[in-house]
Amino acid sequence: MKKLLSIKISRSKALQGILSIIPVIIIISFIRLYPMIAAIYRSFTNWDGLYRNDWVGLKNYIDIFTNSPFWTLLRNNMVMLISVPLQVVIGLIVAVLLYEEVAGWRFFRAIIYVPQIISAVTIGFLFRIAFGLDGPINIVLRKIGLGFLAIEWLGNTATALFVLVLCLTWFSIGWQAIVILGGMSKISPSVFEAAKLDGANFWQRTFYIVVPMISRTIEYAVIMSMVWTFTSIFAFIYSITNGGPGYETSTIDYMIYTKFYQASSNYGFACGLAVILLIIILIFTIAEMRFTNKVSEWE
Hints:
Layout: H1 2-42, H2 59-66, H3 70-80, H4 83-99, H5 105-111, H6 114-117, H7 120-130, H8 136-143, H9 157-184, H10 189-197, H11 202-213, H12 215-231, H13 234-240, H14 252-261, H15 267-298
Helix pairs in contact: 1-15, 2-15, 4-9, 4-12, 7-13, 9-12, 12-15, 14-15
C-alpha cells in the first residue's frame, strides 16, 4: 500500500513538473523556434516582406555562393575568430591574478567588467576616434619618432581588421575573466598552496593546474565567444568601419542586416544568409565539443 502511494505521489510530482514547464516551452517555441522555421522557409522564396512570396527553390543560395561577397564575409568572420583565443588566454591570466589577490586586485576586479556595461556603439566610436588618421594613436606614434607607423588604420583591410580584433578582445576580457573566476571557485585553495610550496611559478600554476581543472568552463567560454563573434559584432563593425572599405571588414551577420534593411530588398536572400550562418555555427560548435571530448579522453 505504501509503495502504491509512493508511486502515485511521484507521478503527481512528475505531472506537476511537466505542467509547470509547458508555458516556458510554448514561449520559447514562439520566440525562438517559430522565427527559425520561418527563416528557413523564407530562404527558399523571393519574399519582399509584404506581398511577394514566390517559391524560388535554391536560387537564393546559389546567388549567395556565386553572385555575392559571401566568401569575403566568411574570411572576415574567420579573421575575427582570432580574437577568441586572445580573449580566453588574457581572461585566464587576469582571472588567476585576481584569484591570487595580487596588489590592487580589488580595484581591477571592480573595473574589469566595465566594457561589458558600456554600449558597443560607444566603444566602437571611441576606437574609431583613437585609430583615426589624426587620432591619439597616431599622435603618440609621431611624438615618439615612429611617424612612419602613423597610417590610416581604418582605410586598409589588414589594419582595419586588426583594429576590430583588438576592439573585440578588449571588450571581452572582463566577461572571460568573470566566467573563468566562476570556474575557479570549485578549486580548493589548498591546491594552490601545495603548488607554491612545490615551487610552481605563476605560469605553471595557471597552465598546469587551473586549465586542466576548469577545462569545461574554458570550453563553455570558447563556444560562447565563437557564437558571439559570428552573430553579435554588428554594432562594432557599424561604428568603427561601417563594413568598409568595400566589403573588406563586413561579416555575415553585418551583411544580413544590410540586406534586410536595404530598399526593395529580397528578404529571402537575407534569410538564406541567416540559415547558412546557423549551419556554420552548428558545425564549429559540434567540432569544438568533439575535440574537447577527445582531449579529455586522452588525459
